[in-house]
Amino acid sequence: xxxxxxxxPLALLDHAWEYWIDTTQRSTLFxxxxxxxSNIAIEHAQHGKPPLLAFDYELLIDxxxxxxxxxxxxxxxxxxxxxxxxxxxxxxxxIDPRAGxxxxxxxxxxxSQVGVALRAGHPVYFVGFYPDPVPGQRLQDVMxxxxxxxxxxxxxxxxxxxxxxxxxxxxGWAVAGLAALRPEIMGPIVLNGAPLSYWAGSxxxxxxxxxxxxxGGSWMAALSADLGGGVFDGAHLVKNFENLNPANTLWSKxxxxxxxIDTEAPRYLEFERWWGGHFRMxxxxxxxxxxxxxxxxxxxSGQIQTANGDKIDLHxxxxxxxxxxxxxxxxxxxxxxxxxxxxxxxxxxxIVEEGQIIVYLLHKDVGHLGIFVGGKVxxxxxxELVNVMEMVESLPPGLYEMxxxxxxxxxxxxxxxxxxxxxxxxxxxxxxxxxxxxDTRSDxxxxxxVAQVSEINETIYKNTLRPVLQAVITPEMGxxxxxxxPSAVKNYAYSDFNPLMAGIANQAEQVRQARQVxxxxxxxxxLEQQASEMIMxxxxxxxxxxxxxxxxxxxxxxxxxxxGAIFPPAAPLEEAVRKQAxxxxxxxxxxxxxxxxAGGFTEGLARLFILAMHHSGGIERRSFLIADQIQLPEIDPxxxxxxxxxxxxxxxxxxxxxxxxLPKLLKNLAERKRAxxxxxxxxxxxxxxxxxSSPLAIKAKELLGIKTxxxxxxxKASKTGxx
Length: 723
Description:
The longest helix has 38 residues, at 9-46. The protein is an alpha/beta fold. Helix 5 links the parallel strand 5 (164-168) and strand 6 (189-192). The protein has 32 helices and 13 strands. It starts with a helix and ends with a helix. Helices cover 53% and strands 10% of the residues.
């Protein structure tokens, strides 16, 4: 009302005419973009839906030709002009997720996981897949093919360290499982947005986890595959993703294109080229995923077995593990990405005892897809992960959070830091990890009951309806059902195959030549934006009500007063593992008693270094760069690594005892002074140590009997105090 009163009737007519021309032209251009989108999708399908990488590549292995075939492929990514890679550098193997869409998201843009590794000089290999699975294909067959791929990459780079394997989303849990079965073939593994704790999450952040309970379990996945003639259409998974945010799917995304049609089309078409390509799985694959992972949550508990009887035990992973998650991810929130660590180890000493290195990295707000395709994420988080990968392997065993900060001008040893960021690895305990998202475990018992009910429902389905459907629905009928799916029909309806779309391209070209954009202060353009906000708010309200209803329904139906009374939930895995870890901790303390005073300079230096690291709360990248400048020819690198592992365990068992017995290892004053000088320089604690009133200096003097302060020039004595 206020805005209208400020506009004269004549001016309002001018606004209306201007808006009419603008919105008519935008509608034509919008329709033309829909036409282009559909043409691109059809053309991409006609070419077999190859991986959508922003880089050239060559096919090395087509797993469809293996003795145990599957629809996966190994590609060697070819560096772009001006980028040189070193075959002796650690190769990177990036495995894309097969979760409804096709391959390419890990290298979708120049600034991507592929791009940052190439620019750092590393050879890069990409694991993609074809649209259709090989008949009878199983998850085990895929894992065997991926193992062969990694072995082939290692053979091509005999002088390099073992390949770093990156698993995105679905590929993340697959990589974790493969690393447990074949730990000897790979180097560090990076799990990006990968759900390994499927029951974890919260009502607000992860509503998708209630879908299994609403549908009565996994039988719906089996039904979908049977209706597809034994093939599960990835369009179902994509639809689930889209349903999470109906405001974005139904309105925000298309309206953003419509409102910014003059500039938004290229970005929209680039993304839709990937988003609109749906890939398939066999019924066996989707049933295994839903039963064992999404509903069964069997990975961390070690309940999954291959067809050969091999148990997937994540304890057997020997490679360093890096987990990247985001608070803005509603597909794999931090709890789903991290809680498996709590369930697997129970206490940080168990991580140390196994010699394992686990690093997690949390983003504040990027969404699920942004973890893989976000340009800013690639230039910061993924680039820094590549830069510090060798350092991760050098960390003492334990649990760390990787923190990336903007580099400041007054930073100590700033010249050692390349780029715009500093990186530190802050030590964490299992208890601290629990506090990352403390309220996400309270309702996991409900999902234990859901899993039990799911098994019953699936058994009933497989013994009643499935035989009928499999007798009636042929693979050919399933193929036709996919060709006539809503997304496929929509593509043909908007494409040049539809005679009604004839002339749209010419009309759009004429509009571009005579384009008249409404002014920013156009009254009707403002009404349009207000209407858009109202529609968004309405759809968001619907989403919130739907999610709340789903959560309430599942908790009521499967809770203690519902089916939970008939199918009591299993005891939380976390509690049993914690008790086991605490008992093991007591045993380890007794067994390690003689080790606290055993060793010489190498062990003493390692113990002092780890104590100093814990005193600082972690270690920074600069410390590794400083350490590279220090020559210690008398210490063998292999023996040093053994000493670091052993001393880290002792400190995790009893830090006070380890500190008190340090003089037994550094047996004379010369060794103690040298060890302190090296450690404080590397950990950048020299200024603190040289302050005689600091707790660190006082402790060093009491414990080791050495003077740590340094004489200051007389002119500065009044400011610094007597040294």
